[in-house]
Write a structure and sequence with these properties.
The chain is α/β, with parallel strands linked by helices. The chain has a single domain, classed as Acetylglutamate kinase-like (Carbamate kinase), CATH 3.40.1160.10. It is 41% helix and 24% strand. It is built from ten helices and 16 strands. Strands 5-10-2-1-13-15-16-14 form an eight-stranded mixed β-sheet, with helices on both faces. The longest helix is centred in the middle third of the chain and has 25 residues. The N and C termini lie far apart (51 Å). The chain binds adenosine-5'-triphosphate and magnesium ion. The site of magnesium ion has 5 residues, from loops.
Length: 293
């Protein structure tokens, strides 16, 4: 080894050692990562994301991936000429839309992510809420501001989570990749918002962290500035004031529920940052918004 090479090797060793306290903190912990549809779409980023998952697994963390797919569903619906609308950040889902949602989420996107992780040397397994009766759904019941019920069609909430399948998958050191599609007691297929689904899974598994990868830096304030730390009690006010709208609403609502159910902290960060998850979990540098009790 030349002096230069020795210096380089030492520097690499130092960098590896810097991750040790973080690895110890997350040793054997479950980390649920919600991979937003808006954060996908770029092959290089998808590969980085997949490598992060493999590295976490090898570092003794148990990553569980839950993915969305809003933009990809929109593209397919447009191709097929099917119209769909959003109310309060949730998709109003009729039968025809639901078929496409399942096809895109539990089919192409799910298998794409599994493929990326496996290509990087991991062993991912793609499932949806229907598999092993992991998630039971129920029809969403919400009202508008005037108190009138909104019919979201086959858009579901989580009624129950059964962690049997996930526990055995995690025990085998496989990385579960979950599509937010689930069966209702009525035998119908429901599309659960991926954020809600991820929160329910994180709560049921007793995850240490829930990480949302989205297409913005985190929760932004009324001036568009990043809010670095947020307490659960601050959230309802931000929604009421119209600072938090659209797709950010199910995210922050999920954060509140997940924290209530024992998840230690939730992070919302920009999935377009290369290695966003690794930086968040295994370095001293936090990005995005950290939400705690
Ligand atoms: N206060 C806010 N701070 C940040 N983003 C906000 C805020 N209010 C609304 N948003 C919107 O929320 C969006 C993120 O949610 P969205 O549902 O679009 O993406 P996603 O959940 O990552 O992807 P998918 O729904 O496909 O899984 C942002 O792009 C932004 O437009
Ligand atoms: Mg969303």
């Amino acid at each position: 080894m030349t002096d230069d090479q020795a210096d380089n090797a030492l520097q690499q060793a130092r960098i590896l050692m810097q991750a040790l306290p973080h690895m110890l903190r997350y040793d054997d912990a479950i980390v649920v990562v919600k991979y937003g549809g808006h954060a996908m779409g770029d092959d290089k980023l998808a590969r980085d994301f997949a490598r992060d998952m493999v590295l976490l697994e090898q570092a003794g963390v148990n990553p569980v991936v839950v993915h969305g797919g809003g933009p990809q569903i929109a593209v397919m619906l447009a191709k097929l000429g099917i119209k769909s609308e959003f109310e309060g950040g949730l998709r109003v889902t009729d039968k025809a839309t639901m078929e496409i949602v399942e096809m895109v989420l539990a089919g192409s996107i799910n298998k794409q992510i599994v493929g990326f992780i496996n290509a990087e040397g991991g062993r991912a397994i793609g499932l949806c809420g229907k598999d092993g009766r992991m998630v039971a759904a129920q029809k969403i019941k919400r009202s508008d501001a005037a108190g009138n019920p909104i019919d979201y069609g086959f858009a579901g909430d989580v009624a129950k989570v059964d962690t049997t399948v996930l526990a055995s998958v995690l025990e085998k050191e496989l990385i579960p990749v979950l599509a937010p599609v689930a069966l209702g007691a009525d035998g119908e297929t429901y599309n659960v918002n991926a954020d809600t689904f991820a929160g329910a899974i994180a709560g049921a598994l007793g995850a240490k962290r829930l990480v949302f990868l989205t297409d913005v830096a985190g929760v932004l304030d009324q001036d568009g500035q990043l809010i670095k730390e947020l307490r659960v009690c601050d959230i309802p006010g931000l929604v009421a004031d119209g600072v938090i709208t659209g797709g950010m609403i199910p995210k922050v609502e999920t954060c509140m529920n997940a924290i209530e159910r024992g998840v230690e902290g939730v992070v919302i960060l920009d999935g377009k940052l290369p290695h966003a998850v690794l930086i968040e979990l295994l370095t001293d540098h936090g990005a995005g918004t950290l939400i705690t009790r």
